[in-house]
Design brief:
The complex is a heterodimer of chains A (about 425) and B (about 80).
Chain A: H1 2-7, H2 13-33, H3 35-46, H4 50-77, H5 80-97, H6 104-121, H7 124-134, H8 139-167, H9 170-192, H10 213-219, H11 236-265, H12 270-298, H13 301-320, H14 324-337, H15 341-353, H16 358-387, H17 391-409, H18 413-416
Helix pairs in contact in A: 2-7, 2-8, 2-9, 4-5, 4-6, 4-16, 5-6, 5-9, 7-8, 7-15, 7-16, 8-9, 8-12, 8-15, 11-12, 11-15, 11-16, 11-17, 12-13, 12-14, 12-15, 13-14, 13-15, 13-17, 16-17
Chain B: H1 2-11, H2 19-33, H3 37-61, H4 63-68, H5 76-82
Classes of the chains: A mainly alpha (about 425), B mainly alpha (about 80).
Chain lengths: ~425, ~80
Amino acid sequence: MGSTEKTQKPIYFGWYVCAATVFVAFVTTGARSSFGIFIIPLEEEFGWSRFMLSLAVGTGFLINGLTQPFVGRLFDRYSGRTVIMVGLVIAGLATASLSLTFNYLYLFFVFGILLSTAMSGASITNTMALLSKWFHRKRSTVLGINVAGASLGGLTLVPFGMFLLQATSWRVTWLALGVIILALALPMVYLFIRNSPEDMGLQPDGDTDAGTADAASERQRGPIEVEKWVDSFRSWPMWQISGAYTVCGATTGMISAHFVPYAIGQGMSGTMAAIVFGVMMALNVAGGLGAGFLGDRFGRKNLLAAVYALRGFAFLFLLLFPGATGVWIFGILAGFSWIASVPLTSSLTADVYGLRALATITGISFLFHQVGSFVSIIVAGLLFDLTGSYTVPFAIGGALLFPAAISAFSVRERKYSSRYQSGTSLPAAGD
Amino acid sequence: MMASMINFILAHQGDAADPELLRWIKIQLDHIFGSGPWAVVAIMGVVIFAMPVFIIVVYLMQAKRRAAVAPVIQEPQEHERVR
């Protein structure tokens, strides 16, 4: 028995890194998503219109997408840990300082520009790039856990902020959210986030018997690993992955902006429509975790194609079954597929292009995603105004998902992915 | 047109902050706890605080095992000093 105890290995440090990044995603996504609860108090106190507040939020989303590749470049070039820490410090201070809001320009600058830029530093795009260094065989699983943490953050911190606001004031609530970032998330980064396993004399996945660290590092390199992000655009997978991810952004953006109005138009009450939307958000967690777990067992690209196809069928059912039935079927199918694409896309990108410029490359993919989202929201609204229904925009969105699925399916994972270069037996990608 | 689009985005911005959903969640939680907002704040606050504490406790509980393989796995702080 004594020998059994002696041979027990400690938990691989990568799991602490994973836990810390999950908590960072939980806190930052939750704090950022809480803006909705401040709208009415700000309107009442300052007399700002909904449009003015919307502009600050819309600008924030745009800035977040635009800055991500640049922040990703800093991540790749210098230290990921430092970028995440600096991003978190600024995000915490900016969130807390929103409690001092006295002027619209102050709110616009702090929330729309400063906080959104800082959030790019501590974003899941960066933390997923970091986790990709710590995990190779279990990469997709940990990335799924990471995005599930972000979803849980929205589901937990928003109600928390809402009740705190009711108990105190909007100023105290902003301050509390900032303190949570600074006092809870920041120490986690300081204590547990390290740039790579090699920095601690470890190997990815916690391997100890797979040869030298150099050999482990070699296993992570794919046949088309790039030194510079621009080189990734000279190969097909980048276009296939980013093209599909743009459609992903377009369809999730369309759903997020127009789903509840559509459901109300189908005869549902506002509350019931919002409940379906909430169920969809909750299923996000299961979808993210499930996709990550399965991605490590069955390969990324086939599953990614299945996720897009599933969402495409969700749109199809929505249009084929009018009324509450179609809305509920859509809610369940779209809920499972909503963020399931994120861990699969990021892990596939890491497998194909390696780790050297990963944060920049995934930052660019994220920019594609956000542009798709922004454009689809506007176009869907325009088409609604022109046709008087959501049938045309939803049909276009659903139809685009099938080419996206084909695009993902056509990635030659077996040829390009580092998972299939090591000689170890892995499930077929089915190229 | 643009304004109405942006209003749409804000009103239902694709996260858990949908105003209708928040109202419904609040009614449900009020019904469950029934003792004012502070009870919910306290419970959720404890849950949020417990997450990092749990991670740190697990890390500390593993100290003995890490020490047993110390030549292979260095403590993070030690490594930072080396760097």
